[in-house]
Amino acid sequence: MKMFKSKKRLKLLSISLAIIIIVMIVSPLIVKNYIINNSKELIGRQINLGSLKYNYFSSTARIYDFKMFEKNEKDIFVSFDTAIVNLEPLRFIFNEKNLEQFYVKGLIVNTVLKDSTFNFDDLIAFHTAVDSSEVVSEEKEETFKYDLSNLELKDASFYFDNKNVNKATEIEDFSFFIPEILWDQTQKSNADLKFNFKPGGYFKSTLNINPVDGEFDAKIEINQLYLNAFDAYVKQYADINEFSGVLNGQVEIIGNTNNPTKAIVFGTTEVTDFSMKDRNNKAFLKANSVNAELKKMDYSNSSYEFGAIELTQPYIYFEMDSITNNFFQIFKLDDYSESETEAQVEVEVDGLSEPELFYAIDNLKVNAGLMDYSDNLTGNRFDYHLNNISIDSDSISSKSEWIDIYADMLLNNRGTLKSKLGINPNAYDNLKLDMVIENFLLSDINIYANYYVGHSILVGDFYYYSKSNITNGEILSENQLLVKNVSVENTKGGLFSLPLKFALFLLKDKNGDVNLNVPVRGNMNDPEVNIGKLVWTTLKNKITGAASDPISSLAGLVGVNPKDYKELVFEYTDTIPTETHYEKLDKLLEMETEKEGLKVTLEHFVDPDLQKEALAISTLGQQYETESGKNYLEDEKGFEKYIKNLTQVDSMNIRDAAVMHIDDITLNELSKNYNSALLRNINAYLKNTKPDTNIKAVASKTEEPDNTGSQNRFKINFDMLTVMADDPTAEKPKN
C-alpha cells in the first residue's frame, strides 16, 4: 500500500514536473504570440518577433529578429538582430533592480521628419497618456536601487530622413559598452561609444559618469566627418550649391547631468578642404585647413576662450555692387526685415540678465591666403587678385583695450602690401592703420583712375605710405604716394591728355618720380563720406592743380614765391630789363636746369593804344626837356602847357593831344622798335647767361584778347618740350 502511494506521488510529481517543463518550454512561444497579437495595446505599434527564448536557470531572455512597424504597419521603424537581457529576479525582493547584461546587436532605427512631425510622435503620445483608471498614490516611494552591468550596443545604424530639406543622414556601426552602473557607487561608470560615418571616418567617445551626483567627463574623437552631410541644412540659411569639407577633432567635456548647460568644453578641431560654392558653382569661401584650439568653452557664462586659430590657404571671392555684395546675397542678409530687428530688440531686452559675452583668442594667424575682389562701382567691371596673404595678431579679447594685427600680401602677384592695424575691439570707430604698398602697378586700377580722375594711368610703379587715425569716427589720414615711371593716355577724346602729361611731368622730381602728399579728412559715421572717393578726389585735385597752376610746383625747386612768377611787368617805354627782371630771369633759367625738359615761354602782351600814348608822351617829354631844360615828369604844369601850345587844343587831355600831334605811322613804328628791342635784349640775356636754354621771349598775336588793356608784360607760360611730351624718356633737344 505504501509502495503504491509512493508510486502514485512519484507519478504525480513527474506529471507535474512534465507539465511545468512543457509550460516553461511553450511559455516563450505563448508570450511571443501574445506580445505580437497585442502589441498595439501594449506598446502602441505593431511588432514582430522572429523568436523569443528564456533561460530559467540564468534568467536570461533572448530576442531575435525584432521589428517594430510604422503606423502604416508596412514600413519598419525599429529592428534589431539580437537582444539579450540577463536579470536577477530575486533582487527585486529587496527593491533593487539588477541587470547583469543588456546586449543589443544590429539595431536599426529609421527616423523621419516632415514639417514639424516625427514618425514617432504617436508613440510619445501613447506612452505619455494618463490612464483615468490609475490612482495616484500619495505614499512616499522607497528609494529606487539599481545595479546595471555589461550594457552594450553593437553594430547599430541610425537613419534620419528630413523631408523638409530632402536630406537623409546615416550613422552606421554605432557601438558602445558600459561595464557597470550602481545606485550607490562612488566611482564614475565608464561608457565607450563608437560609430562610423558615411563615406568614411568615425565618432568615438569615452564617457565617465557618476549616477549618484551626476558628475561626468567625456572624451570625444571625430575622425573624417564629411560636412556635405549637412549641406541641406546650411542651404536653409545660405543660397549655395555646395557645402563641403572634412572635420577632425578631439574634445573633452566636463560637467554634471543635473545641469548640462554648465558643461565646460575644451580640445582641438581641424577642418580640411573646406569649400562653399554659390549658385553659379563658383567657390566664394574656401580653406585648405582651419585649426582651432578650444581652451575653454563655457556656454552658460557666455565665455569662449580659444588658443591659436590658424587658417591655411583660405580663399575669399568678394563681389560688390552699388547696393550690396555677394556675401549679403548668399547669406540672405539683404532680406533682414524691420520685424526681425524689432524681434531682436525684444530678445536683447529680455536677455538683460544674461552674462556679458566674453571671447578671447591667444593668436589669430592666416597663412598663404587668397582673395579675388570684383566690383562694378564705376560702371565697368573691376577685378583684382590678392595672394600670399599673411595675418598675425596679438592676443584678442573682448576686454582688450587695444589689439594690434599685422598683415602682408601680394597685389596682383607683383606689388606688396604690409600693414599694422590697431583697433579697440569695443569701439570700432577708434583705430590706427599704418600701411605700406610697394611695386604696385597703376595700370591695375585704370578703371578707378578713369572714373575718379578722368584718365587712365597706363604705366607706373606705385608706392604708398599711409598713417591713418580714426577717433570717434573722425578720420585723420596722411598719405604719401610715390610713383615711378608713370605715363598716361587720355580717355576723354584728347582734351585732357597733354595737360595731364604735363601735370605729371611737373610733379616728377629729378629722378623722374612723382611724390605726392594726400591728406584725407572726414567722418566715417557720415553716410555721405566715401573714403575711397576722398582719396581719389584729393589725388585728382593734386594732379589737375599742377596742370592748371604749374608755377606752384616749380617754385619750390628754386625757392621763390610762385605769385612773383606769373608774369614780368615792364613800363610801356622799357627796352632793357631792370635788375629785378634779371633776377627773375635767372630763377627761370635755374628752374629749367632743375627741371629737365621744361619749356618756358615769355609771351609778350601790350595794349597798342596805351603804349602809343605812353610813347607819345615820352617823345614830347624828351623834346620838352631839350628845349626847356626841365624834367617833364617833375614840371607837369609846364609840360601840359607845352603840349597845348604844340597842338593848339585846350579841351583835349595831354595824352590824346600828344598822340594827335605825332602821326600814327610814327607811333606804330616806335612801338614796334621798342617791343622788338625789349624782346631782343631779354633773349640776348638768356642766351648769354645759358647758351643751351630753351627759354624764349616771343610776341603774342596782335589780335589776342589779352592785349586789350594790358600793361607791357610777359606772361610766363610753362609746358613740356615737344619731344618730352611725345616721349618722356627722350633727351632734351640742344640749341
UniProtKB/TrEMBL annotation:
Keyword ATP-binding part of the UniProt annotation: no
Transmembrane segments: 12-31
GO CC term, one of those recorded: plasma membrane
GO biological process, any: regulation of protein targeting to membrane
Keyword Cytoplasm appears in the UniProt entry: no
Alphabetical UniProt keywords: Membrane, Transmembrane, Transmembrane helix
Superkingdom of origin: Bacteria
Pfam families in the cross-refs: DUF748
InterPro entries per the UniProt record, alphabetical: AsmA-related, DUF748
Listed name of the protein: DUF748 domain-containing protein
Taxonomic source organism: Winogradskyella aurantia
Phylogenetic lineage: Bacteria, Pseudomonadati, Bacteroidota, Flavobacteriia, Flavobacteriales
